[in-house]
Task: structure prediction
Amino acid sequence: MTAVHVDVVRVFVDPDGRFGNPLAIIDGALVPPADRQRVAAELGYSETVYVDDATTGTIRIFTATGEMAFAGHPTVGIAWWLQSQGVDTPMLRVPAGDIPVTRDGDLVSVRADTTWGSTWDWRQLDTSYDVLTADPTSYSAGHTFLWAWQDEPAGTIRARAFAPAMGITEDEATGSAVTQLTAQLTRDLLVIQGAGSHLHTTWHPPTHASVGGRVVPTASRTITI
Result:
């Protein structure tokens, strides 16, 4: 048995460093491909990233139920983490394609095709209160994204996401989903999701959007494989 080091960051924290979606990061050389999904499931986060080549930004993303060709919170998180390790790559490479990375102060953003990512059942509610008081047990299958305008002129949305199909009762911050919502609404957004995570999006017509946010480190872990 081998002890494997796991770095953990929180992605899309608010301006005070609160909330955010935890992400596990592992050196891909330490975990054989056949074991990656199992390890991701044991760690218990919505996603785990395996870094196969830091210099080229080549990564693989796993949930508890399988591999993802692209996801927003893992790519934003790994872009920040690579820079923190002294690897300032301008591009990430995932199975879906190449993803440009940009940085503006403490915000890290990735740009992707808005057709990538999971298929969502979109439900616009009347008020932010309706979003916040939704019962997660009412969404026991598939992928459901609830949202309402918090401040429509300012482009601020309140949202929650439920993804039991991926073994995730509620996802704290869902980057690929908000790029899709940005494309639907054809405008830049600030999406406040889950307990209070902040996701910033930019619309790049006709088919792309960027999603970005702040990232902070948290306590690392060790898992035995």
Observations:
- The domain at 121-210 is CATH 3.10.310.10 (Diaminopimelate Epimerase; Chain A, domain 1).
- The chain has a mean pLDDT of 96.
- The CA atoms of residues 8 and 219 lie 6 Å apart.
